[in-house]
């Protein structure tokens, strides 16, 4: 496997901190690397160093002769006075670039709703970003550095980009290094992961899931080592404190060793540690959309139907993800739920105990607090906060609550306007949860959050007992925190028993059949699409409709199956934990206990099959 580029003993300092110290790594042909780490730890800076856009203070980056490097920077801009065609393919005639399958694929995948002859300066920010990405991908590169390439892409666009990068080179050719918070994308594309933290770059094999497993094992081993160190430290401290007269006679190397143990306390990584915050009581009725529809005035006169015939009865504790292309009507649907949008047809019924809160994309909740210190913002809400309940209840001050959200003492006195995007996002979520809503709407909640913080937020949402509605292009997040998904297709709300995969199949069918809902394709995209290969199979046939009584029976059985699966899984976990306490020489007892575990696992497998059958029935 040929070597493409390498970094040797990189050192980089900013005025306030050291970003990298003695970092050495290499990139070979066939490498597909994802970079993860906390916001501000240097992920984008590492890309710039490797791509030659930034010079290190010490060390060097060496590149094999003749290697072509392409990079998508977060700040890359396209000349606003050029047309989309000029920005993407330059002055090449249409009959030339249209004959290149790669160029056609890029244009169809990224620019389907972008006017081909339109001026770049007239496009939205997201469209300009996609034009920049398309202009990069149509080129021939040996190494691609991509910084947040999934920004402004919907689920369908992210799936296309993953497929394009998988097929762009042969398995043993080219190299890719990507920074993104989209964990599904990392798993789909990457074969290796670099974690940037504390001035170093730590390599792991595999994509995001493999990285998490390896990091858990690393942290487990570190915790065991730390426990031993703490025990030794306690003994050394007791030994040191026996009294001044005795201490003078102790060997100096023992004193130095004890002092080193005391000083060598590792820093705590940022993590969210909040358990169940208070939630206002929610009755049986939440929000019902009954044959609801919304029409908007069309630019040329008449009306445009955004939603029609929407029948959606939101249940207490429901956790639902909403999918749809940009402009499909997701925000309008959420507006019907919150009351911000009035239906043109049908009606919306809300329960009397419903308290809805929305985590918006714009961070609007923080605008009035821009000049206030972080601690003052939370203190203005309440003097103290109770986390948990019963014997596990803990009362926290505003400062302690913020520290659990990963804010340092220094950041507590920082004005809100000076926080990073991820810190503002955490503060925004906390302020919303402190209002004790029982229905929480998350509108693109992953913006500005790193993978560690996303995992922590998901952990927090797991323990949140209210109703949760999520609109996001982050497939990993949707599948992680929601139990079911719906999609807006052709102005209708459609349930997706098959989840995101079913949605992508529907979109592929729609495009092959020339269906609406994806935006008006430009002439260039139509040319490109004409040469694209279709490889997605047809969606499964819809299940026959159930009567009201049959549906209630099926729903009751489904709940029973879910409870039984959960109980069995707890029993299996407890039995496996108990193996360590058994006499390892008592083979009969060990075999009997293992047989019980195997039987329980077989029952879980049968119940899961029944669960799938019931979910298909309920549609």
From TrEMBL:
Signal peptide limits: none
Top-level division of the source organism's lineage: Bacteria
Coiled coil stretches, renumbered: 551-617
Pfam family, one: ABC_tran
Domain ABC transporter: 5-223, 287-515
Alphabetically ordered keywords of this record: ATP-binding, Coiled coil, Nucleotide-binding
InterPro entries (UniProt xref): AAA+_ATPase, ABC_tran_Xtn, ABC_transporter-like_ATP-bd, ABC_transporter-like_CS, ABCF_ATPase, P-loop_NTPase, Val-tRNA_synth_C_sf
GO molecular function terms noted in the UniProt entry: ATP binding
Protein name: ABC-F family ATP-binding cassette domain-containing protein
Organism: Agromyces soli
């Amino acid at each position: 496997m040929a070597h493409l580029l390498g970094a040797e003993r990189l050192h980089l300092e900013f005025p306030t901190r050291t970003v990298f110290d003695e970092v050495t790594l290499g990139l070979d042909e066939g490498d597909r690397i994802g970079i993860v780490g906390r916001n501000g730890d240097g992920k984008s800076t590492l890309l710039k160093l490797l791509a030659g856009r930034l010079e290190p203070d010490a060390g060097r980056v060496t590149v094999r002769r003749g290697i072509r490097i392409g990079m998508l920077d977060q700040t890359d801009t396209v000349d606003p006075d050029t047309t989309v065609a000029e920005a993407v393919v330059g002055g090449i005639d249409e009959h030339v670039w249209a004959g290149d399958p790669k160029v056609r694929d890029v244009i169809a995948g990224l620019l389907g709703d972008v006017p081909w002859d339109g001026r770049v300066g007239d496009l939205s920010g997201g469209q300009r970003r996609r034009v920049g990405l398309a202009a990069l991908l149509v080129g021939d590169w040996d190494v691609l550095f991509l910084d947040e390439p999934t920004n402004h892409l919907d689920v369908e666009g992210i799936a296309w980009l993953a497929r394009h990068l998988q097929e762009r080179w042969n398995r043993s050719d080219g190299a890719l290094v990507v920074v993104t918070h989209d964990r599904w994308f990392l798993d789909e594309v990457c074969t290796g992961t670099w974690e940037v933290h504390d001035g170093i770059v730590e390599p792991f094999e595999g994509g995001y899931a493999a990285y998490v497993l390896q990091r858990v094992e690393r942290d487990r081993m570190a915790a065991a080592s730390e426990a031993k160190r703490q025990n030794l430290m306690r003994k050394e401290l007791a030994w040191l404190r026996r009294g001044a007269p005795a201490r003078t006679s102790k060997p100096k190397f023992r004193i130095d060793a004890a002092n080193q143990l005391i000083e060598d306390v590792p820093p705590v990584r940022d993590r969210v540690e909040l358990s169940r915050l208070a939630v206002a009581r929610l009755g049986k009725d939440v929000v019902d959309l009954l044959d609801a529809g919304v029409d908007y005035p069309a630019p040329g006169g008449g009306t445009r139907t955004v939603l029609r015939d929407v029948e959606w009865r939101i249940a207490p504790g429901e956790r639902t993800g909403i999918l749809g292309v940009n402009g499909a009507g997701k925000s309008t649907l959420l507006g019907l739920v919150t009351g911000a949008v009035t239906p043109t047809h049908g009606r919306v019924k809300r329960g009397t105990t419903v308290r809805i809160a929305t985590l918006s994309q714009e961070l609007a909740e923080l605008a009035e607090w821009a000049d206030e210190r972080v601690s003052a913002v939370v203190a203005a809400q309440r003097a103290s906060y109770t986390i948990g309940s019963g014997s596990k209840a803990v009362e926290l001050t505003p400062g302690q609550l913020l520290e659990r959200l990963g804010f340092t003492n220094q950041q507590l006195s920082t004005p809100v306007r000076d926080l990073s995007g991820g810190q503002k996002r955490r503060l925004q979520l906390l302020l919303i949860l402190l209002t004790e809503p029982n229905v929480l709407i998350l509108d693109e909640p992953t913006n500005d959050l790193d993978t560690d913080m996303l995992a922590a937020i998901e952990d927090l949402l797991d323990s949140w007992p209210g109703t949760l509605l999520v609109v996001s292009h982050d497939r990993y997040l949707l599948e992680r925190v929601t139990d079911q998904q719906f999609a807006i297709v052709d102005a209708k709300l459609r349930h997706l028993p098959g989840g995101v995969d079913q949605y992508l199949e529907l979109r592929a069918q729609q495009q092959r059949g020339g269906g609406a809902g994806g935006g008006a394709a430009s002439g260039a995209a139509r040319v490109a699409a004409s040469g694209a290969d279709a490889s997605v199979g047809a969606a499964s046939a819809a299940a026959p409709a159930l009567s009201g009584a049959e549906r209630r029976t099926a729903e009751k059985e489904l709940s029973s199956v879910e409870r039984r699966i959960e109980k069995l899984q707890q029993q299996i976990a407890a039995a496996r934990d108990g193996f360590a306490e058994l006499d390892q020489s008592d083979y009969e007892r060990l075999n009997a206990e293992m047989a019980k575990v195997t039987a329980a696992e077989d029952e879980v497998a049968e119940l899961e099959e029944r669960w799938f059958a019931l979910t298909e029935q309920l549609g």
